[in-house]
Structures are given as structure tokens and as C-alpha cells.
Amino acid sequence: MADNSGSGAGEISLSLEETNKLRISLGLKPLEAGVPDADAEAERNYREQREREKKENEERAVKERIEKMQNRAKLRKKLEGKGLGEANEKGDGSAADWVRQNRKQERSRARERALAEQRAQQLAEQDALAEANQDSAYTADHLKGMRVAHDLEDFQEGEEQVLVLKDATIMENEEEGDQLESVHLAEQSRLKQNLENKKKKPVYTGYDDDEFSMTIGNKPSILSHYDEVIDGVKQKSFVLGSEEALAQEERARQEVSERLRGQSQSLSYTKTQIMSDYYTQEEADVKFRKGKKGKKPRKVRQRRPLEDTDLAAPAASGDAMNVDDVPGSSGRESVSIATTNFVDDDDLQQALAVARKSATKRRAKRTAAEEIAEQVKRIKEESDDEATDRAALDTLQSADGIERVGGMVFSDTTEFVRGLTLDALAPVKKEDPDSVAVKQEEDEDGAARAALGQTIKQEPIDNVKMELDTTDADAVLKMETDQEHLGDAGEDEAFDPERAANEVNSPPMEVYATAVTAHSTYLQHAAIVDEPLVASLVDRPSEETLRRERMQRKQMQWMQDQRKLALRMERERQDEKERRKRDAANAGKRSGYEQERERERREEEMRFQEQKRQRELDYTMRDYRPQVELTYTDRHGNALNQKEAFRELSHRFHGMQSGKTKQEKRLRQMEEQRRLAAMPSNDTPLGTAAALQERQRRTGTAHMVLQLGDTRNSGRVASRSHAPDVLSRDVLQ
Amino acid sequence: MIEILCNDRLGKKVRIKCDPNDTVGDLKKMIAAQTGTAWQKIELKKWYTVFKDHITLADYEIHDGANLELYYK
């Protein structure tokens, strides 16, 4: 550490000696002094290289020399032994010696030959012995009981197979015992199996090939393709010398042949058999299989015994006016018709035929006079019943001065008839007799048919279809049926023309008159007819109606004017055309200047015409007031108000609809409204008011006592009216 | 013999004479003898290569006049 401060600034370094000292103390080898001389080193390296090469050369030379020596020694070794010249050195090369040696050789050769012969003989003896043994011991019997691991079918006739002991593991051998196997056959079967596996046949092909390819005796078990999976591969084998295998085969063959024999058909037939028209016994025995079907219970129409209710049925089904009529003997057929349940067409046709026949019979029997008598009788009965009717009729008759006959049926208007009162009738009577004119036509022969030809003339309301119009076909029909009933009833009665003449004057006129008013009110309510029409009947034209009428009249007027105008203009146009044609004809004769003037004139004229037309149009259109009524209806045909119409349009435009519940609700509302409209205006749906009025009329009292609870002490009235519902029922009866 | 320069750039610069067959550990011991630091505390580096004690200088290809960085652990 002497010169700690080395050469550089701040560098610490040691001298070589100090370093070596330190290295020694650290256990390192000391450093060599000085920088190694490159030339010296190169020289040294050269020298070393030369020495190495020299050494190598020497070594190679030595090796070559040794090899040469060895080769020579080998060659010399080949040349060792005696040469041709030196060969007889031993036996001194004389002829006697040569002969001696020759004989010696010959002797040795003979000896060898004898030995070989002896040995051959020995072997032959052995072979013979073995052969003898084989012949006596090893036969087919020896192999009896050996199992062959092949199917018997694998061995073909006249084919030779070499069987060897089967190569098996100890376990297999334990299990199966020694088995014989043909290597060739085993290989073949393995190859076949591999090919089968390669095919990858589907289990089910959809074809019925299997059924036909199957040999006759072998029917495969169900799902036979799984047999190998479940039971393992079945090894076919047979035991040599056993009868079992052969027998089995024989048995199968026999089975098949037997079956085939069973199917065989004899070609011999009885040629002399006579064809019979009837079944032979065998043919008769042949039966067709019938499907199992439950026998259907046959429908048998049964006749129902006639009852009292049945007899009453036609009376009930007839019109109300015939309630009291007793149906005659001919009513029986109609009874059966009415009560028969028409199940199918045959029955219906039969029943209709019966009905028709009976009807024609009856009609033929009855005379016109009888009919009149019956009718009269019936009318009389009715008019007796209702005194008020008579009063009303009298008043009407006095007003009309016309007598009338004939029954009328208002099937659809019974409701209104029931609801009518006398005060509703009064204004009609007062109003004017012409408005409700009833005309009766009578035939010369006085046939009852004339009584039916009743017509009602109603000038102000002739455009309204009224059910009152008795010229209507079904009304006439109804009357006919009525008369039939009457005929039945009055057959046994004596004909009294005088009485009939009297009674003719009493038709249910009241019913008729009230019906007219009822209709008018009904129509008004249901808004079926225009108001002016109703008003003309009821003598109460409203402001609105008048206005509408005026408008209509104006419209009509305007349209008429238009038509006239159009006609006139058409005529003018025609004239113009004529004139033009004439002018054109003349134009050819004129000069150019004149033609020019003519054209100008024509143009002027046309302009004038145009202006005129315009003015006319303005004039005509001044009064043009079209009645525009914008209405919207939904798909049910109901009128819609503004809001509803907007909704409908909006829905159509956007292609959407209200929800199901909303639609249902609207339908419900519509239904309700419809029912409300159908309801009579002056009554409850159950007709309570009508019932009340009826009762008032019958009892002649304006009041009615309604009482609940104990009715023992409250007299007749109370006993008849326990509760409102009871009342209504009671009155309606 | 080769000479190696080790600089810690904190004021110590050591020039060491050594053999190429010396290990880095030997070199460290020699540095420690000259600087007075324990040789275990010395770390020699060249850029990011930290030289390991048991490998010779020749194997690291440290030749004459090489400059090593000297750090203290």
C-alpha cells in the first residue's frame, strides 16, 4: 500500500509486487511480470507446432512398418506346410509306399460305407416300427370328442382343412377345453366379420328385405341385432364324431320340407264337378271376418197417445180471437201434425201430405154459405164479449157510413193493441173520416171471400208500409185459416142468412181504429217515418218538419229549373251548330278579307256566348242550396256522433283498434240502446201499464188496492192482489 | 496480467492488476483490500449486467483496460 496514490488523479492502484503479495495472501497465484511478447509467443507456438508434426510423422512411420511386417508374416504363414515336391518326404516317395497308402485309404472308405449302411438300416427299422405303431393306434377314433371351433357348414364337401389346436389363453382353455381350429377358416371368418363391421348397416332400413332374405326355417327373434351385445358373440362349434350336429341339420331340413309340402297345391282337380247355383257346404262355411261393432239401437218412431192438451193445441196456436172456439172432429189430424216431432225429412213429408189432404177435403166439403154463417157466429160471440167495442164501432160507422165485415189479424201489432186506450182513439175519430177510409167489397154471389177483400186506404201515409194493409198476401192467408176454423165450429149449426146479415155489421172495429193510432205513435217513437207524415195523422206539424218540407220543395223546384235550362241550352247549341255549318258552306265563296272579318266576328260572338253562359250559370246557381248531410256509420250501421266518428276515422287511419274489453263494452251499450228503442214508449218492458189499464177497464174503478200480508179480512179486491207481480199475472190472464 | 479500472463515481477509482483467470470474487477481494470496504458489500456492474462472483473475468470477456462500475450494496 506504499504508493496508494497511483498514476491517475484519485486512482487507487498497487504495484506489481504489492499486488503479488496481496494475491499470495488471498491464496491466488502471483501474476507474471511484464506484458507477454507476441513474437516470442509466435516463435514458441511455431516450434511447438513443428514438434507436434514431427512426432506425428514418426508415429505414422512406425505404424506403417509394423503393418508391413504383419502382412509379410501373414503371407509367409500361407506358404507354410509341404510343397508338392516335399509331399512324400515322409514315405520316401516310392511306388510301394504310394500303393500302401492308397490301400489304406480304400480300407478306411469301405469302413465308413459299412457304418452308413448300418445306420440307414437302423433308421428304416425305426420308421417301420413307428409306422406300425401309427397304423394300429392313431385313427379317427382318437379324435372323437374333440371340439371343433367352427360351424359344420363351414366345411365343404371334398375340401381339405388342416385343423390345429386352437390358440387360446389359459382362461379360455379352462373354460372351453381344447378345441381344434382351422387357421384358414378362422382367418376367413375374421375377415368376414371385419367387412360386416365396415359396412355399418343401419338397424332399420325401411325395406322389407329381411323378410324375404330370411331362410324359411329361421325367424329372427325380436331385436335380434342386440343378441350379440347382450349374450356375447355366439361361437358355433361341434364335437367330432357326435351325431348331434348332423342330426340338428337334418331336423331343420326335414322341418322345412314338411312345411313346403303343407303348402303344396294339388294339380289334380275334379273335372267332372257340376257347377251349382247354390253354395256348396265348403263355400257356405267360408266366412268373412266382420269388424266388431256394437249394434246401433234402431230409431223407432213411437206414437204418443193423444191427450187433452194436444187437442187444445191448435186453439192455442190460433189467433186470439178464436180462443173460445171448440175444434171439431177434423181437428184430430191437425193435432197430430202439431204435436209430431219432425225428426227427419220423410216424417215431415208424410205429415205434410196428411195435412194437405185433410185441408183440401175440408175445403171441398164446406159451402160458401156455411162459411158465412160460421164467421157471423164467431163475430157475434166476440162482440158480445166486449160492449165497449160495440160503442166504438157505432161511432165509427156513423162517421163512415160504411159497413164492414171480416176478421183481422194483427200478429205483430198485438202489443200496441193491448196498450191502447179509448182516449187515444178519440182524436182519430174526430180528425177526419177520409184519412182512415175503409172500403168493403162484396161479391155478387155473396161469397165469404169477399169479406176478406177489405182494403184500407190511407192517402197521406201511402208510402209507409203498414202491416194494417190487409191486401197483403199473408194477411189474406191468415183470414182463410180463420175461416176454416169457423167452418169447423159452425158445421152443425143451421144456416141463418138473416142473422148473418145482422152480424156482419159487427167486426172488431175498435181494434182496427186503435191500431191505426197506435201505429202512428209507434212510428213516431221509433223514428221510422218522417215526422210530417205522422204529424198529418196526429194533426200536429212541427216547426222542424215544415222547414224541412220547404227546403225539399225548393230543391225540387231548383232541379226542375235546371232540367229546363239544360234543355234550352241544348236546343241553342244545336241551332248554333246549324248556323256554323251554314256559314262554313258560305265561307268558300268569300274573299280573303271577308273571311278575315268573318273570323273576327265569330270570335267576338263566341266570347259573348261564353259570357252569357257564365251569367246564366251564376243565376241558376244563386238558388242552389243543396242539402248536405254528412253522416258516419260504424260497421254495424249505427249512426255515429262527431266524437265517435273521429275515433273511427282515426282508428282506420292508424290501423289500430280499441281493446277487447272496450269493444265489448261498446257492443253492450249498443245492445242496451237497441233494447231501449224497441221498448214501447208508454209502457214498461213487462207491460205493467197496459195490464193496469186493462184491469181498470174490467173492474170499472180508477184505483187499485195493493196489499201485502194478511188478506183474510180485506175482501175480494185484496184477495186478488197479493203483490204487484201477482196482480200483473192475474190481469193478463 | 491485465489491468482493470473500477469507478464508483463517488470519488473512488481503483486500478487493479489481475489475471484473466481470476474470478469476479477474487477481483472484489482485491478491490476491498485497496479501498477498505468489505468485499461482500461490493457490486460490480457493466450497464445492467451484474457480475457474479464465481465466474471468471475471461468468461465475462473482461480484457485489459476494461472499465467496470463499482457499487455498494
UniProtKB/TrEMBL annotation, chain A:
Which residue windows does the record flag with biased composition (Basic and acidic residues)?
41-70, 78-92, 103-116, 569-584, 591-609
Q: Point to the regions of Low complexity compositional bias.
A: 117-132
Q: What is its main location?
A: nucleus
**Domain of life from the UniProt record:** Eukaryota
State any GO BP term from the record: mRNA cis splicing, via spliceosome
Q: Where in the cell is it found?
A: Nucleus
Q: Which InterPro entries match?
A: HIND, SNU66/SART1
Q: Which UniProt keywords apply?
A: mRNA processing, mRNA splicing, Nucleus
Compositionally biased spans, kind Basic residues = 289-303
Gene Ontology CC terms, in alphabetical order:
U4/U6 x U5 tri-snRNP complex
Stretches for region Disordered: 28-132, 285-333, 430-453, 569-609, 708-733
Similarity-based family:
Belongs to the SNU66/SART1 family.
Protein name per the record: SART-1 protein
Q: Which organism is it from?
A: Thamnocephalis sphaerospora
Lineage start: Eukaryota, Fungi, Fungi incertae sedis, Zoopagomycota, Zoopagomycotina
Automatic annotation (TrEMBL), chain B:
Q: One Pfam annotation, family name?
A: ubiquitin
Q: Which UniProt keywords apply?
A: Ubl conjugation pathway
Which InterPro entries would you find in this protein's record? Hub1/Ubl5 (IPR039732), Ubiquitin-like_dom (IPR000626), Ubiquitin-like_domsf (IPR029071)
The protein's matches in SUPFAM superfamilies, at most eight in alphabetical order, are given as: Ubiquitin-like (SSF54236)
**For the Ubiquitin-like domain, which residue ranges apply?**
2-73
What PANTHER family does the annotation carry? Answer: UBIQUITIN-LIKE PROTEIN 5
What is this protein's record name? Ubiquitin-like modifier HUB1
Which organism does this sequence originate in? Thamnocephalis sphaerospora
